[in-house]
Each structure stands twice: as C-alpha cells, then as structure tokens.
Amino acid sequence: MSDDVRPEFDVQALVDRYGLGGVRSVRKAEGGEVNENWIVRTAADTVVVRRVSNGRSLDHIRFEHSFIRALGREGFPYRLPEPLRTRAGRSVVTENGKYVWLYSYIEGSNARPSWDTVIAEMAHALAIAHKAARRFSLRPANAIPTVLDHPWLLQALRRLQLKLVNSSDDYHRFFRSRVQECIAILEQLRGTRYGALPRLPIHGDMCVENLIFSREGLRGVIDFGHCCSDAAIRDIAIAVRYECTNATDRFRLNLDAARRFLKIYHKINPLTREETDLIPAVAIAEAADLFRWKMFEVITKRIATPPICELEKPFNAMRWYSRHRRDIASALRM
To answer: What pTM does this model have?
Structure first.
C-alpha cells in the first residue's frame, strides 16, 4: 500500500467487505472541499472510496444513489459513480463515525478539451439528465432553498452583520462595507415565480471539475454530492456561472458562450421563457450565498484565512449579474 495519504480507517478491511481482493495502492484524490476521496487499486478493480462529510444525512446519500441508479437505468450515455454493494448487500457503510461508499474509478484523459467542447458536452449531458429526471419517481431530497423562495439567506446575512458590527478585523470590515448592498440586491429578487417551477432531481454542482473526458469526448459525470430536488434552472445557472465566464473578469458571464450552452440544452430539453428569464436571478442568489459562506468560513476558521479577493469574487459576481439581469435574460431567450 502507498504511504501517500493513508485514511484513518483500515482500507484493506473495508475493501474485504466488498470482496475486492488485496489492496495494491492508495492515493488521495485532489479537491473535495466537503467529502474526502481515495483512489484505491485492488486485485479485482480500481475504486473510489468516498467518505462523506458529517453534514450529509443517510437519507441524502440514499437519494444520491437512487438518482445515479435511475440515470443508469434510463441509458444515460456517460459513465456514472454507481455505488458498489458489499457482500452483505449494503451500498453505504460506516467508518470512524462517517458514512463511506465505493464506486468503480472512471479513467479519463489528462488533456482537457477546448473550452467550446466543454461547454457543449456539459450542456448536452445536463439536458439529457434533466429530461430523464422529469420521469423519475424518487423520494424528494430538499435543497438548501434559494432566496427566491425562502428568506433564510437574508436572515443569515443580517445575523452576520450584527455579529460583526463592532469588529476591527479587516475581513469583518470588508464584509460590513458590502453586506447591506448584498441584502438590497437580494430583496429585489423576492416575489418571483421560482417556487412554482417544476421540481426534479438535479446534479447541483455541474462544472468541469466534475466531468471526466477521454480523447473521444465526455466520458463520465461524477460528484453528485450536492444533488437535490429543485428547478432545472438552478443546475443551469450554476453551470454557466462556473464555465461560461469572461476570459478577463471571471465573475462576468460570457453571453455568447452562455447562449451556446442554452441553445444546445434547449434542443434536447426545452425551457419556457419564464424559466430562462429567472436564470440570472438564480445566479445572483448562488453568488450571494457563496459570499456568505466564504465569510462564515473565515469567522469559524474552517480553512486557512484566504486573501480578501476570494471574498470579493462572489460579491462582484452578484453585483454584475444584478446590474445586467435584464440583458442576460434577453440574451438567453431561445
């Protein structure tokens, strides 16, 4: 076994429960801000051992697995992280008080395709997944609601504002100087018809880091840890905000790229005008939540203190989307 980064639990004892034979090597996968993953090569297979954060309930993991399996049954044309079962028939086990599950490793190419290819393949995969998911009958897993249909984010921002009112810390002053503008922008989003849109299982974190490419094109879609029951446009807003960005200012949307994304998506799974017009509002809400989360991480010291520019990025994105909301909606209409 590699001494690279050993998990806190006995990997050999774990894979024995799955009947995978002797462990040949173990290496920790890069990334994973919430969950931890190890790539484990055994005598029988190469698998990903996924240890889930304490914030994920067993019900949420079961929803994630049901969603993945349902896509597989529908003939989803890309590889998926389909959970393996132990000899006892279980897909989730517990190690050191945390849930763990395994899936067969999906091999990809080290060379990433062109930006245009990534956008096209992502739009195609997301549209196919959403079209299939409309037919699924899964027990709903609630998402953390957006400010478009629940006031929790406004309430959280106001609590932070009060908590930091007398602090002289540079990060706290940075937050205080911007939070009122953030609240004012979010207040403008209340009263939309977002809550009336159809709900379906969505991926929840569609970005290039969760796509696996081979030389032939997109091979697999992974990391369904943020999947939930929500509107399809939440997935779309996340995808275009991450990947259809301006080359100079990453917080700005490249409208031509976003329109190409929507055009490909629309051919497979058409959106109504009402749905399309709400995409910039969802992007504003997601950026505001990221701004709040990064500040929360600083306050609670969950991570090493990032440069202030890391807090500024989601704030700038929220401000830009707010100022150009109508232009974005108009550009994305099919």
So the answer is: 0.92
